[in-house]
Amino acid sequence: MIRLAAFDLDGTVMGPDQRITPRVREAMAAAQARGVMVTLATGRMFSSMLPYALDLNLDAPLLACQGGWIQWTHADEPLLRIPLPVEIARDAIALAEQQGWHTVLYADGGIFLRELREVPSFYEALLGLENALIPDWELVFEGHVPDKVLFVAEAEQIPAMGELLRATFAGRAQVFRSHARFIEVVPLGVDKGTGLAWLAQHLGISREHVMAVGDQENDVPMIQWAAVGVAMGNAIAHLQSAADWIAPSLEEDGAAVALERFVL
Predict the structure, then answer these.
(1) Residue 196 shares a structural domain with residue 258
(2) Is 8 a catalytic residue?
(3) How many CB atoms neighbour CB 32 within 10 A?
(4) In terms of residue numbers, what domain contains 107?
(5) 187, 202, 237: which is the final residue of a domain?
(6) 22 near 264, Cβ under 8 Å?
(7) 6, 7, 108, 120, 200 from 179: Cα distances, Å
(8) pLDDT in tens, 92-118
(9) Hey, CA dihedral for 160, 103, 78, 24, is it positive or negative?
(10) Which H helix or E strand runs over 153?
(11) What is the predicted pLDDT for the residue at 129?
(12) 0.85 cut: is pTM over it?
């Protein structure tokens, strides 16, 4: 019996239009009515994902920043936070500036950029950007603790960027592709799988009672860790090959179908 169900947000629960369909809403509500804890696991910062969790009436700890930040929907402080060492954040940003990459720094639950290369709605939809432009990175490091560094590029550029980042930060940090156009440097040992495992233990829920659903590379660890790992029909091939079951696509309410099949 599933007691904890974790869902990626973008590409799993909602699409680029940020719309969550009635079927997904109803399935999540029905699961919670049966005593199942339903949560979201995403690369977004906590404050960016919280409105969606509240809109879904989720009462659970949420996994933000790839599982490095875990916080109850109703709490003011995280249960768990694993920051990115400042020297790694500095090195990642220095590499990005050498390469001409577009950089986004997450720190203390906020997002910081030195420039906008996309239309504002792009950042608002995918990152939750609010007045985060800064003149110098050191101003952030002086007063904030980093959580991760994200780079935005065209989809075809991401694989080569990933190779360079993994070679540069091997043994020092994790590197994940979290979106067709995003690749991230996060603290060593942080991923959605370890975050979900920590949460399950914190809640006293054993692994065999956990389900996870996702669509991107950064969802692979939690799909592999959960007893029931579900890939969306629109998921990347690597995730689908790692999953126990492949749900219909986002457009076919795959997140709801997974709950209907394994919980309801």
Answers:
(1) yes
(2) yes
(3) 18
(4) 86-187
(5) 187
(6) no
(7) 18, 15, 22, 18, 25
(8) 999 999 999 999 999 998 889 998 888
(9) negative
(10) none
(11) 61
(12) yes
